[in-house]
Amino acid sequence: MSVTPAHLAVTRPSRLQPTLRLTFTLLALALVAVLLGQGAPAQAATNPAPSSTANVGPQLGWTEDTVYVQSDATSRWPVKTATERLSQGSPLRLVLVKTCPVRTSASQPAVQCISVTSGDLGGGTLAGTTRWTFAKSTNKLTTATTTLNDRWAKHASSADRLNIAEHELGHAVGLPHVKRKASIMDAYAHGRTKPDAGDLRALNERY
Ligand SMILES: [Zn+2]
């Protein structure tokens, strides 16, 4: 079964600094739903994480607070620091590992592991992408894969690279875009090197 990624593409020209376009891609959960026997029809989901409002159901996130991160990204990307910054101020714990733990029996909980890689995503303003799957019935994440753009990183400041690494990991733990320059989840990099109060609130809603 194929799934159709929904790209959020935004552009905003700037002469002062490279315009950074981040995209996040949401994989429709048809495959997951079928595997779980939910029988949900295939659909292209848009933003699965509603804003903080009463009676909206669980926010998108992993089931357990500890989530592993396997990074094969180049050293340009400060993935370790990003995991540390996202692990402060909420119960979420991102644990950087060389290799995702392996589930050895069906009785064990599913492995919660984010795969981070980097590569050439082109010479435009795309800094990184994150794709994930989740179970519709629970809004719980089942897989997440982040790809960071090495070509973009060559010309980015260290602050922006950290911003992007945190931003994409933010998607990988369930956070949607917000329109707030102080947030790591703003769709543009602004050299934000740690989550702001709103980001921490969003994490605490999930973990
Ligand atoms: Zn994004």
TrEMBL record:
A Gene Ontology molecular function term of the record: metalloendopeptidase activity
Domain named Peptidase M10 metallopeptidase: residues: 148-200
GO terms, biological process: proteolysis
GO cellular component term, pick one: extracellular matrix
Keywords of this entry: Hydrolase, Metal-binding, Protease, Signal, Zinc
Top-rank taxon: Bacteria
Signal peptide: 1-44
Protein's UniProt keywords contain Transit peptide: no
SUPFAM superfamilies: Metalloproteases ('zincins'), catalytic domain
Keyword presence, Cell membrane: no
This protein's name: Peptidase M10 metallopeptidase domain-containing protein
